[in-house]
Amino acid sequence: MINSRKEVNLEMNLSELEYMVTIAESSSLSEAAGKLFISQPAISNFIKRLEERDGVLYFNRTNKYLNITLAGELYVQYAKKILKLREGFERSINEYS
Q: pTM here?
């Protein structure tokens, strides 16, 4: 973990949430990159910047694998809820337009 017992102030946007969910649900960075239509180095840079910004380690890296940490699982759990809320909101708004 990067931060030990330090309060974290997360600034998120919907694209970041979608990226994190896709990365977590993919079996590799290559697969995630394909699903997101970006390069594998761009995914690695995204994760690195996010972790540095938030001061939290979301993934453990080995030579071949990317393993989600407990903090990463928590991020993805809430990201899915937020994205589901957005989807419901868009559906509701579209019913009135």
A: 0.82
